[in-house]
Design brief:
Blueprint lengths: L11 H24 L9 H22 L9 H15 L1 H4 L7 H9 L2 H6 L5 E4 L15 E5 L2 E12 L6 E7 L9 E7 L5 E6 L10 E12 L16 H35 L15 H28 L5 H31 L5 H10 L7 H13 L8
Parallel strand pairs: 1-4
Antiparallel strand pairs: 2-3, 3-7, 4-5, 6-7
Helix pairs in contact: 1-3, 3-7, 3-8, 5-7, 7-8, 7-9, 8-9, 9-10, 9-11
Family: Belongs to the acyl-CoA dehydrogenase family.
Pfam family, one: Acyl-CoA_dh_M
Catalytic activity: a 2,3-saturated acyl-CoA + A = a 2,3-dehydroacyl-CoA + AH2
């Protein structure tokens, strides 16, 4: 049976619109904000307004599609994937800086009730998970949320919060009962103007310098109980599957960022090879061609495999199919591949690749975070092993 791997026509406008933003807004200012770390890219304000309008139209369109009896649905997850891919071709850090498009928004979309989706539809939400005491082990959350009448009091410190100083809200992972373990970990939507919420500092980073990364402290930060996303019940059977569902949605998007950046580097690598007189001939065996061409074909095939993994993960999410393994597969494959591609492009570019005359060295620096955040390579492989072998986190650590 033939498989059609072309994107549905309904996404043509998304591809065109987001690629134009990447080409005409992101690329021209990419180096400027790489050098001006922590300076807010004001050029994105208008883009943020347009993106908000587009999302409202897309939600309406996706809602109409979901109401039909189509056998397969390509909805908001696939659309987010495509947008991330196209705009990351321009600049990953600037994509993460667009007003209204924080990682916390994906968390809200993943686990919020219908009422909460309506309530938080216009917010720009960062996501606060990692703490000074742990890195990739999300179950080790020590930030607490203590019930106090109709509110929760949140106390703790979060690090590596993307858009933490720019977003107007932050989705905070906190435990409502330390004795109940991971089952008591919930996510809360906290306005950044809440008393007791403080941006302690901004990090200086290797890459994605145009995106701010903050340390945020919560000291008796009071939020309404209704700001707890999903159910407040501690379900030991479900553990913290609700908040972890966030990753099933966001990991394919991070993979798409890696794919967009990887494509940019592949295009530049192809140009350099052709300029040097090394033609890429797909009708010949790779081994029968110049060593650099052989390497390019290997990288391109890895890139294609990453894209297909990512498409699969997003399609499953849109069709309400469990995709935890596939989400981790897409993130692991794309994260490893983009670092491989960008490093090779710097190597082939030689002096020009290592200097600031091109964007190659910047892309290599930006690429590394895509193999780290939303779970490192090792964490993804652990999750995949658990799913494939049918093991729990207690069985396989």
């Amino acid at each position: 049976m033939a498989i059609n791997l072309e994107l549905p026509k309904k996404f043509d406008s998304t591809v065109e619109r987001t690629h134009m933003a990447a080409e005409h807004i992101f690329r021209p200012i990419s180096r400027k904000y790489d050098k001006a770390e922590h300076e807010y890219p004001t050029e994105l304000d208008e883009l943020g307004k347009l993106a908000k309008q587009s999302r409202a139209q897309e939600r309406e369109s996706d809602g109409q599609s979901a109401a039909t009896d189509e056998p397969s649905e390509n909805g908001p997850n696939m659309r987010a994937l495509i947008s991330a891919r196209e705009m990351s071709w321009g600049d990953v850090g600037l994509l993460l800086s667009i007003p209204g498009q924080g990682l916390g928004n994906a968390a809200i979309a993943a686990v919020a009730t219908d009422e909460q989706l309506e309530k938080f539809s216009g917010v720009w939400a960062a996501m606060a998970i990692t703490e000074p005491s742990f890195g990739s082990d999300s179950a080790a959350v020590s930030t607490t949320a203590t019930r106090d009448g109709d509110d929760y009091l949140i106390n703790g410190e979060k690090i590596f919060v993307t858009a933490g100083s720019r977003a107007d809200h932050v989705v905070v992972w906190a435990t409502i009962d330390k004795s109940a373990g991971r089952a008591a970990i919930k996510s809360f939507v906290v306005p950044m103007t809440t008393e007791g919420v403080t941006v302690a500092r901004l990090e200086h980073k290797l890459g994605i310098k145009s995106s701010d990364t903050a340390v945020i402290r919560f000291e008796n930060a009071r939020v309404p109980a209704d700001n707890l996303l999903g159910s407040p019940e501690v379900d030991t059977k479900k553990a913290f599957g609700g908040v972890m569902q966030t990753f099933d949605n966001t990991r394919p998007v991070v993979a798409a960022m890696a794919i967009g950046l990887g494509r940019a580097a592949l295009e530049e690598l192809r140009r350099m090879l052709e300029e040097a007189g090394h033609e890429i001939d797909y009708d010949k065996s790779a081994a029968a061609q110049h060593a650099s061409v052989c390497e390019f074909i290997r990288l391109e095939s890895d890139w294609e495999a990453s894209w297909l993994h990512t498409l699969r993960a997003a399609w499953m999410a849109d069709n309400q199919q469990p995709n935890s393994a596939e989400a981790s597969m897409s993130k692991a494959k794309a994260g490893r591949t983009v670092t491989d591609i960008t490093n090779k492009a710097v190597e082939v570019g030689a002096t020009a690749g290592f200097s600031e005359t091109m964007l190659l060295e910047k892309w290599a620096r930006d690429a590394k975070i895509l193999d780290i955040f939303e779970g490192t390579q090792q964490i993804q492989q652990l999750i995949i092993a658990r799913r494939v072998l049918g093991k729990s986190s207690a069985d396989l650590t």
